[in-house]
Amino acid sequence: MDVRGRMLKETLDAKVTEAEGGERRLNHYVIKRVLGSGSFGIVHLALDTDSNTLVAIKEFSKTKLRKQQAMKNGGIYGAFRGRGRGRGRGAAPGAAAANGGHAALAAAKSDNPIDLVRGEIAILKKLNHNNVVKLFEVLDDPNQDSLFMVFELCEKGALMDISLERSAQPLPTDLSRQYFQEILLGIEYLHEHDIAHRDIKPDNMLISKDGTLKIVDFGVSEIFTREIGTVNKSAGSPAFYAPEMCVARHGDLSAKLLDIWAIGVTLYCMSFGRLPFNGRSMLDLYESIRSQEPQYPPGIDPRLKDLLEKLLAKNPDDRITMDQLRVHPWVTDNGRLPMVSKEQNCESLVTEITQSDVDAAVVQVRSLFTVLKAVSKLKNLGRAPGSSGDLFPA
Q1: Tens digit of pLDDT at every position of the chain (394 positions)
Q2: Separation CA 197–CA 186 (nearest Å)
Q3: Which residues is 132 bridged to in the sheet?
Q4: Pairing of strands 135-140, 363-364
Q5: What is the CATH number of domain 16-154+351-379?
Q6: Does this entry carry the keyword ATP-binding (predicted)?
């Protein structure tokens, strides 16, 4: 049972059935409808009959996962091997290596990309924070390219629909401050787990039924080495790239500071309803990010302008840190709305990832969604990605 009192059910063999009335089931999940589609596939709305709660079942491409892992030196086991995770949290997959190295050895010999990331998934399943979407279960069909992740559902959808071509209505200051604090708390928690999100943007900030912001979509996340904390591959959405990413052959970059920059772009979007940098092409966009300063409207709160300038500092060494963000006058409204302490925010850090956690990270299922996906695609033929009802972006 997880710390929220929900049973994490591990199923050795699952199947899809369809009743005479057309109800489709995946074990204890009743598939309701398609929420949306995107680059990673289809997102289904489902009812978990064990808990009588709605969930989102998200498809994820193993081919893309394989490519992503190939870019990590030695895969996740190479990153973790031989080090602790700090604060006495255990060595995660490295602990398995210390205990005979069975998991690492199996991953090294396996052709299945899922075996390379079982340790990562084991960590993600144990994350427990109010502002980080909860991953309940991961299902892998060895006969298909996709694996399927069962997440808590965020009924109110994305924080904001914004892009290079599309502006949005700015949020009221009080709501923007509330959501910004929640983003900071969630990202701080991830960073304390040595996880850089790498794709922070309004699309990946969803709002739950009770109005809580949840950080989602770890498709390009990096679990990095605490002692180094760097990445050398570009990832995420170009409009949210930091200047140091917009340079060819940029070498190793601070993963945390890349996230800090993207937090700044997100706050700019929330405050003004548009992106701070734009361009007629990717090269124009990169040049804008590298060399131009954002435009601020007349009468802007000087505290907000100061915060944005510190978040969007071109030199990463000049960028504001998470500890400084916590006490910034705009964030706390001059101390009237202080954030919970770092100790309180991170008290539910994962203390140990056992060999059992790694082994049970992914449930193998057979011929899971072959029929289900075909039916869904036929029913949604012609439906635009991200259309109304897309509560959990793919």
Answers
A1: 444 444 444 444 445 556 556 677 777 788 888 887 765 567 889 999 989 999 998 877 777 766 666 655 333 322 222 223 333 333 333 333 333 333 333 444 455 667 767 777 888 888 899 999 998 988 777 777 777 788 999 999 899 989 888 899 999 999 999 999 999 999 999 998 888 887 899 999 999 999 999 998 765 445 444 444 544 444 558 899 999 988 877 777 888 999 999 999 999 999 999 999 999 899 999 999 999 999 999 999 999 999 999 999 999 999 999 999 999 999 999 999 999 999 999 988 876 778 888 888 887 766 545 444 544 444 444 444 444 334 444 4
A2: 10
A3: 215
A4: parallel
A5: 3.30.200.20
A6: yes
Residue ranges of the binding site? 58
Is 173-345 in the same CATH topology as 16-154+351-379?
Answer: no
User: How would CATH label the architecture of 173-345?
Assistant: Orthogonal Bundle (1.10)
The one catalytic residue among 48, 140, 141, 199: 199
Domain residue ranges of the chain, discontinuous segments joined by +: 16-154+351-379, 173-345
Which residues have CB under 8 Å from 193's CB, separation 6+?
A: 85, 123, 127, 223, 349, 350
Residue ranges for the known binding site for ATP are 58
Angle at 194 between CA 191 and CA 198, to 5 degrees: 65
